[in-house]
């Protein structure tokens, strides 16, 4: 029984990876945090938008501030959200409920693998399950691409801004969840284009 | 509610037409668009007739190609495409070619239609952009401005005419029957004279003339007239200049069509720039003239915004300069005695082309008869010094190149002038080419038109060889439009490092030079660029399309130059700061420069056989 379920899961993932890039729908998510430690840090704000048929749909964009943040500490230096802005925010339940709906039958896209543990933790705290088809990390894609070109990876060469620069994408202000979500989505499209050079890109190529 | 993304909104709000719409329009656009990454591999998915979209380029650069593969325009940040089909519903014929892949914002037809319904300006912007694509749309005439209207639109039809052997009594009866104040005297459909009710008073009643005498005995012979296709403005100018109230209107074959009266024009008149010209012609003293001249900039400002045909502004300013000059010459003669012999006061350059701007300086000269004596020359030297000095005081700056009648070299007999022209034609040095560009645009202002006419017919007969035309074509090609390798605008910098575009030197001047060359080749002796182009339509030196393109470019650049000249006083003259331009204007500007560049190359090929 267990083996069968496991096999189904593996087979499903295998099938999924054979899909062409544009045949799937994606949800690009970006989170601003109070810190980088999953055990202590909290979600301050979260934003997402969908990519369907290779088009980033701005009408699907959502942006939420988490009102129950216990300690912002030094983090407002980065994301600019202070106590007064928290008050107008939403509860974690509300946010996770929306995210769960938005992620349904979609591939989750983040820049860095760090965001996913926070989403999973929030899911556990609210008992609202989030089940993306699978995960794509634009930072990992970039790292793989750089390594395969034999380029050295410096400390800041994988930040969202430096990645975008490599594809001549416009300069954006960073550390606003919504802008970063769009920036990540655009980066993904540029990366897919740079890889494809005439052949169709499969999801497997992105993982 | 969908949150807007600051970076997208900030970009959108800077673009035309959103920069002029309420913020809600930018918000709607920024939250309803989709972003695509446009590449050579996926470009075939876009610009398809089955899915119509409005596209706005965010980054990258693309060529828009016609169905036959020719480049229509280069698209870069801030440029729109796809709108013609959204507006017309017609199938998309153009294709894309990607130079640098990048981000493009895409708006669906239903969202585009929503913005069109909500914001009139949005609709207007795209309708206008559509009409302006390639500037090839033919010029729409603005019927609202009275002085731009054609005479045929304001005159009352039906000439009230009698033959010259009709009696004075017949004329009086006919005039009262038709309720008109003047009558045309004609024979075999040709205009012979005019009789007005003032003539009945002054030439019949006051002189106790026999009322049964023929009309030919009292009519004004060979009166001034206008053609039906002339502008109202020209008619007014003529009336005010000669203080007449009735102008016969003729068709192309000189058949009288009717009479235009000053009352007809008064009825049309809403604002009056032309009144000023009238007042200038009436001014009795230099002081009065200066007061009137001081009104010119203000008047121009109020007038320029209401005019669509910008060539009229140049005409108006030249008309004002003409009036000032003529009046100053008259005043000088009143104070210092009549001129001792005939003379023609002529003007060159922009005044001759009727393209004057507020910054134009004087370019004039004096044509004297061949038998002029040294003593008479002294009189004219004083007169010229007076006129040029006073013109400068009236706001028309002295010519830095000293092309002024006050300079002895610019006061010559017909023979002397012809010798100068001949020199330039046969020894086409760069200096000579520069002179040709100024002096070949010439126009008569005041004095003896017979003397001037004789001179120009001799000037026309001066033989011009291929070498001369080759030199001119080469000279034209030493100047270039400010377009970079990828059709991007190339900016110049001044000492304070302000970036600017010189619309005159790098645009209008090139068109003027090209048109002058073709006009000389075709032996067209007009000075005005648009009139030269009009005349070039009937010879086969240039194709109709080329003529229309040059006309449209010329109009567009002049309009832009004028608008910016009125609004910004801190930039070098005739220059604009491209940052002040809307994205649409930038787009059109590039198209205009591109057309000029092509015309330049064609000219080099034709006259200099491509040898540059």
List keywords for this structure.
heterodimer; A: 207 residues; alpha/beta; Nucleotidyltransferase, domain 5; 5-stranded mixed sheet; B: 612 residues; alpha+beta; CBS-domain; Beta Polymerase, domain 2; 4 domains; 4-stranded antiparallel sheet; 4-stranded mixed sheet; 21 strands; 47% helix; globular
Summarize the structure.
With 207 residues, chain A is α/β, with parallel strands linked by helices. Chain A has helices spanning 2-17, 76-79, 83-87, 92-103, 115-126, 138-148, 160-166, 177-196; strands at 26-33, 43-52, 55-65, 107-110, 135-137.
Describe this structure in words.
Chain A: Keywords: Exonuclease, Hydrolase, Nuclease. Chain A: It holds the Pfam family RNase_T. Chain A: One of its GO terms (molecular function) is 3'-5' exonuclease activity. Chain A: One of its GO terms (cellular component) is cytosol. Chain A: This is 3'-5' exonuclease. The complex is a heterodimer of chains A (207) and B (612). Chain A is an alpha/beta fold and 207 residues long. Chain A has one domain: Ribonuclease H-like superfamily/Ribonuclease H (Nucleotidyltransferase, domain 5, 2-Layer Sandwich). Chain A has helices spanning 2-17, 76-79, 83-87, 92-103, 115-126, 138-148, 160-166, 177-196, and strands at residues 26-33, 43-52, 55-65, 107-110, 135-137. Chain A has a five-stranded mixed β-sheet with strand order 3-2-1-4-5, with helices on both faces. In chain A, strand 4, helix 5 (115-126) and strand 5 form a beta-alpha-beta unit. Chain A is globular. In chain A, 36% of the residues are buried. With 612 residues, chain B is an alpha+beta fold. Chain B folds into four domains: 6-135, Jelly Rolls (Sandwich), CATH 2.60.120.10; 150-268, CBS-domain, CATH 3.10.580.10; 274-462, Beta Polymerase, domain 2, CATH 3.30.460; 472-607, Nucleotidyltransferases  domain 2 (Four Helix Bundle (Hemerythrin (Met), subunit A)). In chain B, 47% of the residues lie in helices and 15% in strands. In chain B, the strands form six sheets. Chain B has a four-stranded antiparallel β-sheet with strand order 1-7-2-5. Chain B has a four-stranded mixed β-sheet with strand order 8-9-10-11. In chain B, helix 11 packs parallel to helix 14. The longest helix of chain B is centred in the middle third of the chain and has 26 residues, at 311-336. The N and C termini of chain B lie far apart (63 Å).
């Amino acid at each position: 029984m267990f083996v069968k379920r496991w096999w189904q899961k593996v087979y499903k993932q295998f099938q999924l990876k054979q899909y062409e890039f544009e045949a799937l729908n994606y949800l690009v998510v970006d989170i601003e945090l109070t810190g980088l430690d999953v055990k202590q840090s909290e979600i301050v704000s979260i934003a997402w938008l969908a990519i369907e048929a290779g088009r980033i749909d701005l009408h699907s964009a959502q942006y939420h501030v988490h009102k129950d943040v216990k300690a912002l500490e030094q983090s407002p230096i980065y994301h600019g959200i202070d106590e007064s802005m928290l008050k107008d925010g939403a509860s974690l339940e509300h946010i996770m409920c929306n995210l769960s709906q938005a992620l349904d039958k979609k591939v989750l896209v983040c820049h860095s693998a760090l965001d996913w543990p926070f989403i999973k933790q929030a899911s556990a705290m609210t008992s609202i399950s989030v089940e993306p088809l699978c995960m794509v990390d634009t930072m990992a894609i970039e790292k793989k691409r750089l390594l395969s070109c034999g380029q050295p990876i410096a400390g800041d060469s994988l930040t969202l801004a430096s990645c975008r620069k490599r594809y001549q994408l416009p300069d954006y202000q960073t550390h606003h969840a919504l802008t970063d979500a769009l920036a990540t989505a655009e980066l993904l499209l540029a990366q897919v284009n740079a890889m494809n050079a005439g052949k169709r890109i499969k999801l497997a190529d992105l993982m | 509610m969908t949150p807007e993304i600051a970076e997208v909104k900030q970009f959108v709000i800077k673009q035309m037409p959103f920069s002029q719409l309420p913020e809600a329009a930018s918000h709607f656009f920024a939250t309803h668009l989709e972003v695509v990454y446009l590449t050579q591999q996926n470009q075939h998915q876009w610009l398809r007739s089955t899915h119509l979209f409005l596209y706005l380029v965010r980054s990258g650069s693309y060529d828009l190609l016609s169905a036959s593969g020719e480049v229509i325009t280069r698209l870069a940040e801030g440029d729109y495409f796809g709108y013609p089909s959204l507006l017309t519903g017609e199938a998309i014929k153009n294709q894309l070619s990607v130079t640098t892949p990048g981000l493009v914002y895409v708006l669906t037809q239903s969202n585009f239609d929503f913005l069109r319904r909500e914001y009139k300006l949005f609709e207007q912007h795209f309708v206008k952009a559509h009409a302006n694509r390639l500037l090839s749309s033919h010029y729409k005439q603005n019927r609202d401005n009275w002085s731009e209207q054609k005479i045929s639109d304001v005159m009352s039809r039906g000439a009230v005419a009698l033959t010259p052997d009709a009696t004075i009594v017949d004329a009086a009866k006919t005039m009262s029957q038709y309720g008109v104040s003047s009558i045309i005297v004609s024979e075999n459909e040709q205009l012979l004279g005019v009789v007005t009710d003032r003539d009945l008073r002054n030439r019949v009643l006051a002189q106790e003339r026999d009322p049964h005498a023929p009309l030919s005995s009292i009519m004004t012979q060979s009166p001034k007239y206008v053609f039906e296709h002339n502008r109202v403005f020209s008619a007014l100018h003529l009336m005010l200049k000669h203080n007449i109230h009735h102008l016969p209107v003729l068709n192309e074959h000189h058949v009288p069509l009717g009479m235009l009266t000053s009352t007809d024009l008064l009825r049309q008149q809403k604002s009056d720039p032309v009144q000023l010209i009238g007042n200038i012609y009436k001014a009795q003293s230099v002081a009065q003239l200066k007061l009137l001249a001081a009104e010119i900039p203000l008047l121009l400002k109020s007038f320029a915004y209401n005019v669509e045909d910008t060539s009229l502004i140049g005409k108006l300013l030249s008309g004002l300069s003409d009036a000032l000059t003529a009046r100053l010459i008259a005043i000088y003669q009143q104070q210092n005695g009549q001129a001792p012999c005939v003379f023609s006061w002529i003007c060159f350059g922009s005044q001759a082309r009727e393209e004057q701007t507020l910054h134009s300086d004087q370019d004039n000269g004096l044509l004297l008869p061949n038998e002029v004596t040294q003593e008479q020359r002294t009189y004219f030297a004083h007169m010229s010094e007076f006129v040029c000095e006073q013109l400068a005081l009236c706001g028309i700056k002295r010519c830095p190149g000293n092309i002024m009648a006050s300079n002895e070299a610019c006061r010559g007999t017909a023979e002397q002038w012809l010798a100068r022209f001949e020199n330039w034609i046969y020894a086409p040095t760069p200096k000579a080419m520069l002179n040709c560009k100024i002096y070949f645009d010439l126009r008569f202002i005041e004095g003896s038109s017979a003397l001037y006419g004789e001179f120009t017919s001799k000037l026309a007969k001066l033989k011009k060889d291929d070498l001369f035309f080759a030199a001119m074509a080469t000279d034209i090609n030493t100047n270039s439009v400010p377009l970079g390798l990828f059709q991007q605008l190339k900016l110049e910098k001044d000492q304070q490092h302000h970036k600017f575009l010189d619309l005159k030197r790098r645009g209008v001047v090139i068109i003027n030079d090209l048109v002058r060359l073709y006009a000389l080749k075709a032996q067209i002796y007009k000075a005005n660029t648009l009139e030269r182009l009009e005349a070039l339509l009937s010879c086969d030196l240039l194709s109709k399309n080329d003529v229309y393109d040059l006309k449209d470019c010329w109009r567009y650049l002049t309009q832009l130059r004028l608008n910016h000249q009125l609004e910004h006083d801190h930039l070098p003259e005739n220059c604009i700061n491209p940052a002040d331009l809307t994205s649409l204007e930038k787009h059109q500007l590039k198209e205009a420069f591109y057309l000029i560049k092509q015309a330049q190359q064609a000219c080099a090929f034709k006259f200099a056989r491509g040898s540059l």
